[in-house]
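In the laboratory, one determines a bound structure by crystallizing the protein with its ligand and collecting diffraction data. In a computational setting the workflow is compressed into a single prediction: the sequence and the ligand go in, and a structural description comes out. We illustrate the idea with zinc ion.
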Amino acid sequence: MTISDTDRRFLRRAVDLAAQALRSGDEPFGSVLVSGGGDVLFEDHNHVAGGDATQHPEFAIARWAAEHVSPEDRARCVVYTSGEHCPMCAAAHAWVGLGRIVYAMSGARLAEWAAEEGLPASPVAPLPIQTVAPGLVVDGPDPELTPEVIALHRRARG
Ligand SMILES: [Zn+2]
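The predicted complex, in structure-token form:
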């Protein structure tokens, strides 16, 4: 699959949520859960500023979906996210049986940028989603939105 205009509308929302996270003093990551029928079911952004580094929006989506969406409907959902799922979130996504993932910026690109900036390496390897969960359908990166996401991360580092 490729990234369609409809996909880009939800991806844009995910990037807007990342910007909102940054404005509220958190790291710029945002994600949206969309049903098979195209409705936004749940959306969130990073909440790691409080000291819990597992508070990623993709993880919150997986747990929310497990509680509120039937297994059949979960498989038809699409998750849009500003940055590619980390291994923890890719695993959670696969464990709860959610459907396709569309991301704006890859984890590899973020790691590359952080290294260029001389930032400390993440404690978790930037593995591609399909290395963690080979059965998932994944589309990304989006070359139109990647520079915008990088700019948010640059702003986050001051
Ligand atoms: Zn994550």
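Helices lie at 5-23, 57-68, 71-76, 87-95, 107-116, 129-132, 146-156. Keep in mind that any predicted model is a hypothesis to be tested, not a measurement.
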